[in-house]
Amino acid sequence: MIAPDGEQIGIKSIQEAMWLANQLELDLVEVAPDARPPVTKIMDYGKFKYEQSVRDREARKNQTRTVIKEVRLRPSTGEHDYQMVRRRAEDFLMHGDKVKVTIRFRGRENERPELGRNLVDRLVSEIGDIVTVEQSPRKEGRQMHAVLAPNAAAIKRRKEEAEADEAEADESQPVEADADEVRADTGEADEARAADDASDDLETAPADEEE
């Protein structure tokens, strides 16, 4: 038997254990029923269940939900379509999702499974270090499947590099003056020059001779 503070009380009869729990106005809970003798603990069972539900809720909140996206290819997929699939797979991985690659075979393509493996190998090679192969290509009937997983460290590094490049590009761009401000400054300069010219004319004009 265990006390509310965790101290070992010792072996007690069920009647004595119930009496002790009643005296403390707490519950007697069996915590290890398979032990010999069974282990019980005096506790506030309602509080215990509440705290357990809070811990479970926090654990679920902190869990990362794994999403598996799918991209599809064929051994005869054209270069343009392949590049679109590659960019889509890379985008999924950059967002932290896994990617299931499905290769579909038709007709005589089924006799050459290496075409599918080569396609997956090319995809992995071109996406780069942000991807790891979680499940190697495996042919099942007329389809071949492989699962790619994101490499969190490489993805973080690539995002940081992209942010640094973007910040550097912003700093290198020249600051353009507003067109209205330029016109206003030009107008003020013209007025100032005109005023100066008028002042010069007044100063250089000959004085009238007295009679």
**What overall form do the CA principal axes indicate?**
elongated
Supply Rg. Answer: 40 Å
Q: Whole-number average pLDDT? A: 82
- Structural class call reads alpha+beta
Measured as a percent range, the helix fraction is 40-55%
Cα-to-Cα separation, first versus last residue: 134 Å
Largest sheet at a glance?
A: 4 strands, mixed
Order of helices and strands: HEEHEHEHEEHH
Strand order of the largest sheet: 3-4-6-5
Output the number of helix runs. Answer: 6
Tell me the total number of β-strands.
6
- The low-pLDDT segments are 202-211
How much β-strand is present in the residues?
Answer: 15-25%
What does it look like?
- The protein is α+β, with helices and mostly antiparallel strands and 211 residues long.
- The chain is built from six helices and six strands, in the order αββαβαβαββαα.
- The strands form two sheets. It has a four-stranded mixed β-sheet with strand order 3-4-6-5. The chain has a two-stranded antiparallel sheet with strand order 1-2.
- Helix 3 links the parallel strand 3 and strand 4.
- The longest helix is centred in the last third of the chain and has 26 residues, at 179-204.
- The chain starts with 13 loop residues before the first helix and ends in a 7-residue tail after the last helix.
